[in-house]
Amino acid sequence: MSTLQDLLAQKAELERKIQETQRNERQAAVDKVRALMAEFGLSVEDLGGKATGPGRKKAATDGTRKAAVKYRDASGNTWSGRGLQPRWLKEALAKGKSLSDFSV
C-alpha cells in the first residue's frame, strides 16, 4: 500500500506533467495558427481582434474612464450622476434645493 508521501509525490509529478503538456500543446496550436496566418496573409485585425505586443498599448478596459460631470455646486463639488449621491448634494436637497439647481 502507498503512503501519503508517495501519493503526494505522484500527484506533484502528475501536475507537473499536465502543466508541461498544456504548455506544449498550446505552443503547437499557436505555431499552427501562425503558419496558417502566414500562408493566407492574415493579420490579427483580419480575425476581428486587436493586435497587442511590444510597442502597442492595450485599451483601458479596467473602468478607469471618468464619467462626465452632470452636477456642480458653487463650491466646485461635482457629481457625475452615477453611484450614490455625495454628501454635499444630499445636504443641499434636504435644505430644499432641487437637483436641477446643480445641473451643468
Give a verbal description of the structure.
The protein is mostly helical and 104 residues long. The chain has two domains: 4-47; 71-102, no CATH class. Helix content is 43%, strand content 4%. The protein is built from two helices and two strands; from the N terminus they run αββα. The protein has a two-stranded antiparallel sheet. The longest helix is centred in the first third of the chain and has 37 residues, at 4-40. The protein is elongated and about 80 Å long.
For the biggest sheet, the summary is: 2 strands, antiparallel
Strand-residue fraction? under 5%
Q: How many independent structural domains? A: 2
- What is the N-to-C order of secondary-structure elements (H for helix, E for strand)? HEEH
The geometry reads as: elongated
How widely separated are the two ends? 77 Å
Q: Which terms summarize this structure?
A:
104 residues; 2 domains; 2 strands; elongated
